[in-house]
Write a structure and sequence with these properties.
- It is a single chain.
- The chain is mainly α and 46 residues long.
- The protein has one helix spanning 4-45.
- It is built from 1 helix and no strands.
Amino acid sequence: GAGAASRHSVGTGVMGGMLFATLFGIFFIPLFYYLLERKKEAHEND
């Protein structure tokens, strides 16, 4: 139909955003927390 292309574009954007948010939540947030803890421990040892 007339709106099929726009629905496809919106769906692609939504799926990309969900994938990015999932990967960000699983990998980058714990990594960021780990790096902050390491920096804090190094600062306490000085």
